[in-house]
Amino acid sequence: MMNNEKWTELQQAEDMAYFKADLCCYSPESYSLEEKRAICNDMISTSRAVLDAMRADFERLPADARSKLLDMLCRSGVESPEWWDVLVGEGDPLYRELEAI
Asked: Which of 19, 25, 32, 92 stands 20 to 30 A from 38 (CA)?
């Protein structure tokens, strides 16, 4: 399992990538095409890193704990049963279709 420090690091990297994208959308003329490409790639790579870490932690849980966790998420309304595909299947369609540019 990942420790809190590593999770915080991953989340901060993803937050920073999306913050840079927000800045770019606010003032696109301030960025070159290469900078925009780097921002997009950073968003994809950081989001995939978070998803991969989440999957790895989920896979380390015993089968009954995985089932209980998914059931709890669905009952709370936070996630739907399709979340199972994100955690153990092919993943979110967004990440399957997006490739670095």
From this structure: 92
64's tokens: 């009954």
Higher-scoring residue by pLDDT: 42, 71 = 42
When mean pLDDT is compared across 10-24, 49-63, 80-94, the lowest value belongs to 80-94
Distance CA 28, CA 20 (A): 11
7/27 Cα distance (integer angstroms): 30
Phi/psi for 90 (5° steps) reads -75, -15
CB neighbour class for 3 (10 Å; exposed up to 12, middle 13-18, buried from 19): exposed
Q: Is 77 left (phi over 0), alpha (psi -120 to 50) or beta?
A: left
